[in-house]
Amino acid sequence: MTKFTDLNLNPKVLKAIEEAGYETPTPIQAGAIPAALEGRDVLGIAQTGTGKTASFTLPMITRLARGRARARMPRSLVLCPTRELAAQVAENFDTYAKHVKLTKALLIGGVSFKEQDAAIDRGVDVLIATPGRLLDHFERGKLLLTGIEIMVVDEADRMLDMGFIPDIERIFSLTPFTRQTLFFSATMAPEIERITNTFLSGPERVEIARQATTSETIEQAVVMFKASRKDREASEKRNVLRALIDAEGEKIKNAIIFCNRKTDVDIVSKSLKKYGYDAAPIHGDLDQSQRTRTLEGFREGSLKILVASDVAARGLDVPSVSHVFNFDVPGHAEDYVHRIGRTGRAGREGKAFTICSPRDEKALDAVENLVQKQITRLESPVKPATRSSEAVEATEDKPAKRTRSRSSTAKSATPKPAPAAKPQAEAVVDEGEAPVERSETRTERSDTRPERSDTRPERSSSSERGDSSKSRSRSRKDDRRDEKVVGMGDHLPSFIALSFAERRAG
Question: Can you give the pTM of this predicted structure?
Fold first, then answer.
């Protein structure tokens, strides 16, 4: 059996490996390290959790132990798709290079440019970066890539999924042609193969497992879930998730729950907290300091459940994750391999549960075709309610509500009985000339109204209408002048005059 001492590594590196508790390399390490030490390009294909990070960090430290870095010109470059993976690689360098005088810098988003610029200005042997932040420094004139001796692309297939391939191609063009390239990926998509053919020169291909296979130590199962109603799918799906967690009980030491969308990460995390579960979210929209605190808590064991997007599917090195729950079936079949690869690491046993709704069945078929294995089906731990009592009540109330509305409308439409007519002035006043004159005046007015209506069509000009209105107003005034009121002038309004007339008659 091959040991690290057989791989011709630097004695100081071997000492650090021994202090870390490792003696035997993994298959990917045993195949990639000798070729990397010889200065050859390496194309490593292996599933998540097989030790790819040490496959390039150990030979890099050995080769970089000789030499000195210059300001703004790093000697080696490691590209990672996510901040978490870049931070993990930096931790590996700290572990294995603690007896070697090498400097490193970590260029990731969410950290001040000023601190990163200061580290670059001092000169670094190892530069670990995400593509976006690396190009930001380069475009600001703070970084030169002409001194790169060794270039590493880690998790290349994830770079493809996140749209970093154009940035990777640009970065390759900025580095010297004589560089050594170490290229690692869990799967080999056609686009990844094109890049390797373009930028790698006669690489040593080290393929440990079939593309996109899952570890045999992971027990996999899928729950076929169907909601009772479409508008209740999200809440009922969370009920199924909680039931799965409760069913495992004390078997869960810590767990990662993966969601396809960042919004679902927040919603599921809040829901679990509401029901008393120790959970916290992590995704790309969170502040870097918060993401770091959450990951540290999960590694240290103070946090039991981590709800994550695919940003944490890779680059999360927690050897003792006992369970993985896929709240959604991943849209890319390869992501399923990386998600469940967080458990069952280093020969340990693990469990992976997936919740599959009817619209995710095609994605599940793609996963099973990729891993070439049928995943065990489980019955839903929560029996879906066909129709809840609340829904039945709401349905039964609808006709009653419509009946009430019609009845109320009918009531409102029914004419109310007219109030009794008030007695006329003639009924109160038995005699007097004024009331008689008033009634006659009303009769005359009512008699003249039809005449006005009959003459309207014959009017053809505004002057004629004005003359007729003036004549009517004169006739009214003449009628009112007949009603004399003692002590009042002729200009007194008619309604006041009538009031006085009634009182006088009384």
Answer: 0.62
